[in-house]
Amino acid sequence: QRPHQTAARQHALASGQTRVASYMLTKCQSLVRLPWLGYTRLRHHDYTHTNAESPEGQRTMRDICRWHVEEFAYLLAKMKSVQEGDGTLLDHSCVIFAHEHAEANPHKDNGLALIVAGHAGGLKTGMHSKMRHTIGDLYLTVAEEVFKLPLEKGFPTAEKKISGIV
User: To pair with 104 at 20 to 30 A between CA atoms, which of 16, 86, 94, 111?
Assistant: First the structure.
């Protein structure tokens, strides 16, 4: 079913019907089970709180996180395969991968690993950075600097725009 869903998303983006997409694979607090990864005993959220720091728990969390990143990579590859004007759909997009927790067990949300892809609005990618900003700062920067959408109220956790990514 994944190729059909991807084709519909690609068509909506490529035909100009939308330039905004939200792609949520799962919420970590959800009740989702992951039988395709071989994890049927617990729900995803339960795995984060059941021996998550043990070697077995770390392998489980690694496998789940790897699956999410592989799904994101699949989406990017499909976007890159769609020719659009002088580039590809990915060239003309801004795609953000964010996991809602840096550490799931204590629900820590600072120090998140984020992936930003695409080149919309002069977005710079292909670099590795360690920044001390909030996810709200990233969203504020993308909205105002990449998509040129001035926000009067910003984002609740935004303090300032991030320099160097546009």
Answer: 94
